[in-house]
Amino acid sequence: MMNIAVAQSGGPTCAINASLVGVFRESLKVSDIDAIFGSVNGIEGIINNHLVDLKSMILSNNDMELLRQTPSTVLGSCRYKLPDWKDDEAVYQKIVENLRQRNIGAFFYIGGNDSMDTVNKLSEYFRTIDFDVKVIGIPKTIDNDLCITDHTPGFGSAAKYVATTMHEITRDSIVYSIPSVTIVEIMGRHAGWLTASSAVLHAMGETAPHLIYVPEVKFSLENFLSDVRQEMSKHKAVIVAVSEGIEVPEGVQSGVVDNFGHKYLSGIGKYLEEIVRNEIGCKVRSIELNVMQRCSAHISSRTDIDEAEAIGAAGVRLAIKGETGKVMVFKRKHDMPYTIVIESADASCIANQEKLLPSEYINSNGNNIRSFALDYFMPLIQGDLSLIKENGIPKHFAIHESVLK
Predict the structure, then answer these.
(1) How far apart are CA 4 and CA 55, in angstroms?
(2) pTM attached to this predicted model
(3) Exactly one of 114, 143, 145, 227 is catalytic; which is it?
(4) 227 part of the active site
């Protein structure tokens, strides 16, 4: 018999709790697994020996269904960067001590690029000291920028929210007779997947968004203004989708960085709003979608949620087979009908890597997305959850705050 531990890390998504359900539900089927621990605030919970007994909190199928529809990380998150164990072994020794104390034989880390760095470092260290704990990465990120996997849990729901919101913004923007420009700022540090996904509206006959700017293309303010003027000659209301990560002058964004050296980004929409107001002089507004992109579970993609649970469950099955240092990945077999399989890849091939939007998806002017790219995005946003509601709004699962402190 052994116990297992599972943790969540990085930015929250609509699907990360579904992956937790996948790990939990699959572990209940394994007779060799006894306790299922949740690590509070990611790897920090393992380091600080702050774990909770999930079997005492997730008591029924109804609880699991609630958890599946609940956004964000029910166990809390972190952005803790493990040092190289050759430089600082003390924290690793603490992790080993705490895992051994609780008889934990497998650790599942649900997260993005930086979390897979933790998976890679831990599995390598455990191999070095011959410590038999399996370490498996379960992917998540709305940025969709993990290598090898076709897509990441959390992305489909975020893309669905972005496209739906862009659709509603379009309806709102065209009601007046005066010319206008609306700039919508969308998350994406180096990869423009989420911003590009707004182009799914084109499959519905919409011309909006009329302009799409992603970080993979060098941004030119001169070209941007020319593009806007050209679109204004054709459309009364011009809708622009812009990634928060496009290159802008120093001072537009805060410059503050996290533990992994990533800048906190925001402000490009407001910056471009002022530029359009001063240079073109029309009615203009900017909208920063901000955290709503990753927490709007009321409009999540059923495909995304179902796949998130499935990939968590697959991680448990892989660990039981004796694998470690792996990250679960999706391999797409077909667009129509949409078909995927779940496989695994070495964490060393995914950690600290980024998958950028393919250049062939971007038009020759660098200001929109080609129509054939929609075949990639469309299957990921399909389906709706039958939400459990209370007082007319979706109900959420929560672990009592006093337990998490």
Answers:
(1) 12
(2) 0.94
(3) 143
(4) no
